[in-house]
Design goal:
alpha/beta; Rossmann fold
Length: about 190
């Protein structure tokens, strides 16, 4: 796995061995960042269910000002921290929060400004995790006005979108996986 664009383009990222972590594929990240494009400049990014941090790190490489990563599992956390250290991304630009995403949302609301971009990729086996996370983002005021949310989820089945969010682009499918693009209603 590597960074595909920006100042750190081509740099390799660590990932834990095994099937416990499902990194966002290069092809999917290309599409994601083609859609987000210039909106990344100076953005505050929240990478939920971050795994190795590939999406948040890619955003930083492409001009985001700051990224916060939330992950609970030990092996991906070790890889995430190693990736940030290898790239020289210190606390001014990157913060790692270890813990369950839903439990950490109120903590983030108390300690961080609202985010311009949120990426979430919950475990596919955790039914309803994406919907609960979207509702939590809105309930805790974690989205800046006009903030965008991208959800990576199984392509089968519909993603229930809360009233405070609306699609800003058609979902994109990549085999069994889809990206849904949402924006906070103003």
């Amino acid at each position: 796995m590597r960074i595909i664009g920006g100042t750190d383009r081509g740099r390799r990222l660590r990932a834990p061995r095994g099937l416990g972590t499902r990194p966002t594929a290069d092809r999917m990240r290309v599409t994601l960042f083609d859609v987000l494009g210039p909106s990344l400049a100076g953005a505050r990014v929240l990478d939920l269910f971050a795994g190795t941090g590939a999406v948040g790190i890619e955003a930083l490489s492409r001009g985001a000002a700051r990224a916060v990563f939330v992950e609970r599992d030990r092996a991906p956390l070790r890889a995430l921290r190693a990736n940030l250290a290898a790239l020289g991304l210190g606390r001014a630009r990157a913060r790692v929060v270890a813990g369950d995403v839903l439990a950490m949302l109120p903590v983030l609301a108390a300690s961080e400004e609202p985010f311009d971009l949120v990426f979430l990729d919950p475990p596919y086996a955790a039914a309803g995790a994406a919907e609960r996370t979207l509702a939590g983002l809105l309930a805790h005021g974690l989205l800046a006005p006009g903030g965008r949310v991208v959800v990576q989820h199984p392509a089968r089945g519909a993603l229930a979108v809360p009233a405070g969010l609306a699609p800003f682009r058609e979902p994109r499918r990549f085999g069994d996986t889809a990206l849904t693009f949402l924006a906070a209603r103003r």
